[in-house]
Amino acid sequence: MLLDVKGMQAGYGQTHVLHGLDFVVEEGGVTALLGANGAGKTTTLRAICGMVKTEGDVTFLGERITGRATEDIARRGLAHVPDGRGTFMELSVEENFRLGAYVRRDPDVRADFERMFEWFPRLKQRWRQQAGTLSGGEQQMLAIARALLLRPRLLLLDEPSFGLAPLIVQEIFGIMRRIREESGVGILLVEQNANLALELADRAYLLETGRIVVSGPAAEIREDEAVRRSYLGY
Amino acid sequence: MDGFAHQIIAGIATGGIYASVALALVMIYQATHHVNFAQGEMATLSTFIAWSMVEAGFPYWVAFAATVMLSFLIGVLVERLLMRPVQNAAVLTHVGVFIGLLLIVGNMTGWIFGYTTKVYPSPFTSSGPLMGGLISAHELGSTAVTLVVLTLVFLFFRYTSLGLAMRAAAYNPRSARLVGIRVGWMLALGWGLAAAIGAVAGMMVAPVVFLDPSMMTGILLYAFAGALIGGIDNPLGAVIGGFAVGVLENLAGAYVVGTELKLTVALAIIIGVLVIRPSGLLGRVVTSRV
User: Which residues form the ABC transporter domain (chain A) (predicted)?
Assistant: First the structure.
């Protein structure tokens, strides 16, 4: 088991957003975290990597990481593409790549750059360009590449489809399918577009106002009447 | 004509000092969005440390190197002990801490080393005039030292991964943490580097203006004017601005306002830039699409 979350509570100041979440993310494959706006999806990802005040037990690779500093959690192999993407707008694509691999000291970094070019050929064309001048889709690709260059065991993805044209979203989800097949990294995917997420995911959790209300294999959840009506819209 | 050329060359020499201090200011500003008013006082303290080592009989360059390293450490300590506890506090708290630091370091320097003006040696001497008397050995040497320091700093930030991490931490601390950068330490390193650069500037200017506890007060103003001209968030701009202020100040002092009113030039520049073009002449424009 990659990530084991038990009784996780988190919030901002006096406001509690998560009221005791329990869920797991298995090695490899994609786990989707679904829910409406304000259900607490983004907060869940922030809580896992220590960006908000968190209580409960978050265990990553057998080690309790609750309350640790974000940079220490990242160094343990947990990468996060946050909402708003978290790229370094002022820096070039190349520098964003170098920062993604900043904590790595192994000799495979160069080979991983090439691997990213295979997955995201557009980034190679933009190599010397300032990240802030990329299109929205390219920025999202850069954000994912930046996170993968940490060579993480677990990748947290916060709404990779947000604000992008449908065609670009298709392209990015196609790339993510390849990453899933070819890399073995575990992915925890937060999405508002449940259809899209359930196509890619193996397992899914449904979050409602800070609580998990449904969980199971993605295929089963797609067939679930209630979920279908409320979240899939057919 | 020779007089004019000499004024320009002397302006470049002092401009190098302003450029260094301006760079130190910009480095702290980029990371904290505040101007470290105590930068000059910290440099003066460093220069006094170097002076006492030279007085104690150490060779000049040994004292120089030791002072640079010690200043780096002092800078790191100031960030860890004084700035860290207030990092999330309001703007006025920061201003208060900077002013407090200015007073404490300034008065401590006077208390330890005394207020009498001291002669600080120059490592650059020559037997005869250089370039037909256009430039003194110290002007040439200190300009060279300044340029070497500025080049090293530039190469460090541009090409090393630590330099890149420091820039990333300054631009976007949240994302920097996500790639595993220890942002707190990057800030401390930035303070150390700024203090070390300031120390070099102090040691280079001391033979010209003589050493006393308020040696850097005026220089800090010129440096601030230089940083503003270049754009307070642009390191290269600050360096260019520093050199420009040096030349302007010298020419204005020689031909326009006279030496007594030279400092007014700096103040006029500060106000002028803030009124007409607050982002500076070379202020970086970051384009961004969503």
Answer: 3-234
Two structure tokens written together for B233: 């968030």
> Is B175 an interface residue toward A (CB < 8 Å)?
yes
Q: How do strand A203-208 and strand A30-35 relate by DSSP bridges?
A: parallel
Cα gap B64→B83, rounded to integer Å: 27
Is the CB of residue B282 less than 8 Å from the CB of residue B231?
yes
A73 and A8 co-located in one domain: yes
Chain B segment 147-166 residues within 8 A of A by beta carbon are 161, 164-165
Residues A168 and A59 in one domain: yes
Q: Which residue of A has its CA nearest to B286?
A: A90
* AA letter at B47: T
Question: What confidence tier does A225 reach under pLDDT thresholds 50, 70, 90?
Answer: confident
- pLDDT band of A184, cuts 50, 70, 90: confident
Q: What angle do CA A161, A163, A166 make, to 5 degrees?
A: 60
Contact A29/A66 with Cβ under 8 angstroms?
no
Least Cα separation, residue A22 to chain B (angstroms):
24
Pure H helices in chain B: 2-32, 39-55, 60-78, 91-113, 137-159, 161-171, 173-178, 183-209, 217-230, 235-251, 262-276
Among A32-41, A100-109, B53-62, which stretch is predicted with the lowest mean pLDDT? A32-41
> What type of residue is A86?
G
In a domain, A71, yes or no: yes
Taking CB atoms and an 8 Å cutoff, what residues of chain B touch A46? none
Task: State whether A114 and A167 are in the same domain.
Answer: no
Residues A55 and A28 in one domain: yes
Residues of B in contact with A102 (CB under 8 A): 161, 164-165, 168, 179-181
- Parse chain B into domains and list their residue ranges: 2-276
Residue B6 pLDDT level (bands cut at 50, 70, 90)? confident
3 state DSSP class of A162: coil
Considering the segment(s) B2-276 as one domain, its CATH architecture is Orthogonal Bundle (1.10)
Nearest to B226, CA basis, from B38, B15, B43: B15
B182 touches chain A (CB under 8 A): yes
- CA of A95: which chain B residue's CA is closest? B164
Q: Which amino acid is at A176?
A: M
Report which residue type is found at B227. Answer: A
3-state secondary structure of A72: helix
User: How large is the ipTM?
Assistant: 0.92
Mean pLDDT of chain A: 91
Q: What is the pLDDT of residues B262-278, one digit of tens each?
A: 888 888 888 888 888 87
Structural domain includes residue A42:
no
Range of the domain at A62: 1-36+51-77+156-234
